[in-house]
Each structure stands twice: as C-alpha cells, then as structure tokens.
Design a protein that fits this description.
Layout: H1 9-27, E1 54-65, E2 71-82, E3 87-97, E4 100-108, H2 113-130, H3 148-164
Antiparallel strand pairs: 1-2, 2-3, 3-4
C-alpha cells in the first residue's frame, strides 16, 4: 500500500482559513458595478491615491481673473503615482475659464511597459471626463480602465488649483 504524506490536520485547516480570508479581503477591493470601467467625477477617491506623492514642478500661464475662485488661464503641473513596479509621473495641462476646464492635455513618461499601456488609455479618455466640468468637481478614480494613473492626475489638479486660486 502506498501512502502519500499529508500535512497535519491543523496545517490544512489553517491554510483553508487563510485562503477564505484572502478571498474575502480581495472581494472588498473589487469595484462596484457602477464603477467598473466607467469614469467618474465627484468627491470619491480611490484607495490607490494614498500611495502618491506630489511634485513641486508646476508652471502656469495665467490670464485675467473671472468672477470665480480661480484665475482664467492655462496651467501645467506634474503628478506622480505608485504602481507595483515603479513610481510614474504624468504632466497635466488644463485651460480654465470661469472655473471650468475647457481643455486638458496629459503627457506621460512611463517607466514600464504596462504603465505605457494604462497611461495611453487614460490619456485617450480623460478629456471626455473632465472638459466642461468645474475644476472643484473633478476627482477621477478610473478612466478607460486605468485607476492608478488617476492618482497622478488628481495630484496635478490639486497643484493647479493652488496655482490658479484668485
């Protein structure tokens, strides 16, 4: 008779419990049906945003002051965000008129191949999400399937808001 070596019962039970706990923990990270693959604006923030750091590299080309809280003009800022492989940086340029974003341009300098894919998806979809929105209402969490790039974008928007404050 051939007998295979089995782990002791307490070890098997511990492994089963750990697997079940891991599944339950990961289920909490899944997006809701309304968030899945859909861009969002508003005051919700993504849990990935906690890993970013803000960059001090900003520039602005401010125009005249409108009746709003921000000076009309074109502003540029960099935002950084962490991925599992690297720390990535994007450059965000927005044009404001009466506190509303009338144009946005995002450029990236991806360090990893996967980051290049997600940054290009983000860059292709961000204008549809933020153009026409009041800058105070812009807080993206996922754009075209890219959620980490949103953290860098939100960092840059916060810097731009400070620069443009009237």
């Amino acid at each position: 008779m051939i007998r295979t070596a089995l782990a002791p019962r307490p070890v098997r039970l511990g492994a089963a419990f750990t697997a079940a706990a891991g599944i339950a923990l990961l289920a909490g990270c899944a997006p809701t049906a309304s968030e899945a693959e859909e861009p969002s604006t508003g005051s919700t923030s993504s849990s990935e945003n906690s890993d970013e750091t803000s960059s001090d590299d900003t520039s602005s080309d401010a125009g005249s002051t409108s009746g709003g809280a921000y000076t009309d003009g074109t502003y540029t800022a960099e935002g950084t965000y962490a991925t599992p492989e690297s720390v990535e940086t994007i450059s965000v340029t927005v044009t404001l008129q009466d506190d509303v974003i009338t144009d946005v341009e995002v450029t990236g300098n991806p360090q990893k191949r996967e980051s290049e894919e997600y940054q290009s998806k983000f860059i292709g979809g961000i204008a549809a999400v933020v153009v026409g929105q009041d800058i105070d209402d812009v807080q993206v969490s996922r754009v075209a399937g890219s959620s980490l790039t949103s953290g860098g974008f939100n960092d840059a928007i916060e810097t731009i808001k400070s620069e443009a404050a009237a």
